[in-house]
């Protein structure tokens, strides 16, 4: 299923953004169109992510679509009459750049459908928390195209060739439970509990030292496609650099003193 919604009325807030302590929450807000990702929606996501990235009080981010649907896919009205050059001119990748470049952990909280571009959005996050109602899939072949924002490559890296091929070549989504069993989803929550659990995990991430978090995320992302020796060298470099941070000393002193650390991000 790929969404087929039309443009929403001018003035509708397509993405809701707020902060709970050190966690920024981004909520997709086009429920009448199952959060279909048209250009306005993509631009609103990018703007919200840039704002949360710039907020020094925010140390982790959660993206959700609510209890009924995460995002059912691209808005086909955006694409149906366009040729290759027209779509290239849209430069759809620009809208995902703030997420790809985020220095802060980003967690997807998925209930209901996360399909097509919606699934790709979830896959771009550091990890996914889903509830038992979740359905994750890449059904683009059913409308004559294929994923174009990382759906093939992130899937095959997450679940392997066999399952990625099944999902892509049959257009069948995975249930939340199956996605969890295969490692596509990091944690499976009861119905309606994906967002609360994602918030709980985001608060834990937000309490950790920012420089160590950034270094770990860099190694995870950059090292995954490197030969093992190169990836180990990257890990060792980041490991050593953290010994020059104040938070390293604070974390170790707090552990030895049997107290909670007070990390300052330096």
Automatic annotation (TrEMBL):
Pfam families, sorted: ECH_1
Entry's Gene Ontology molecular function annotations: hydro-lyase activity
Signal sequence residues: none
Native source species: Pseudacidovorax intermedius
Matches recorded under InterPro entries: ClpP/crotonase-like_dom_sf (IPR029045), Enoyl-CoA_hyd/isom_CS (IPR018376), Enoyl-CoA_hydra/iso (IPR001753), Enoyl-CoA_hydra_C (IPR014748)
Name of this chain's protein: Enoyl-CoA hydratase
Domain of life: Bacteria
PANTHER family assigned to the protein according to its UniProt record, in alphabetical order: ENOYL-COA HYDRATASE, MITOCHONDRIAL, ENOYL-COA HYDRATASE-RELATED
UniProt record, GO biological process: fatty acid beta-oxidation
Family: Belongs to the enoyl-CoA hydratase/isomerase family.
Keywords: Lyase
């Amino acid at each position: 299923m790929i969404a087929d919604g039309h443009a929403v009325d001018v003035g509708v807030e397509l993405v809701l953004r707020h902060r709970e302590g050190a966690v920024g929450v981004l909520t997709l807000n086009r429920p009448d169109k199952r959060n279909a990702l048209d250009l306005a929606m993509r631009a609103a996501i990018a703007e919200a992510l840039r704002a949360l990235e710039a907020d020094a009080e925010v140390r982790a981010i959660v993206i959700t679509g609510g209890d009924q649907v995460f995002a059912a896919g691209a808005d086909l009205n955006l694409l149906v009459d366009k040729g290759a050059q027209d779509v290239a001119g849209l430069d759809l990748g620009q809208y995902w750049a703030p997420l790809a470049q985020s220095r802060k952990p980003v967690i997807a909280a998925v209930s209901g459908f996360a399909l097509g571009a919606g699934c790709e959005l979830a896959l771009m996050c550091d990890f996914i928390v889903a509830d038992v109602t979740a359905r994750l899939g890449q059904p683009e072949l059913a409308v004559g195209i294929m994923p174009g924002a990382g759906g093939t490559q992130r899937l095959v890296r997450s679940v392997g060739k066999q399952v990625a091929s099944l999902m892509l070549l049959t257009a069948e989504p995975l249930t939340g439970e199956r996605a969890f069993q295969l490692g596509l989803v990091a944690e499976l929550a009861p119905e309606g509990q994906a967002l609360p659990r994602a918030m709980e995990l985001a608060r834990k991430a937000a309490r950790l030292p920012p420089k160590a978090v950034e270094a770990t995320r860099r190694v995870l992302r950059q090292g995954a496609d490197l030969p093992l020796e190169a990836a180990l060298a990257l890990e060792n470099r980041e490991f050593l650099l953290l010994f020059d941070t104040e938070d390293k000393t604070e974390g170790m002193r707090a552990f030895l003193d049997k107290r909670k650390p007070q990390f300052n991000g330096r």
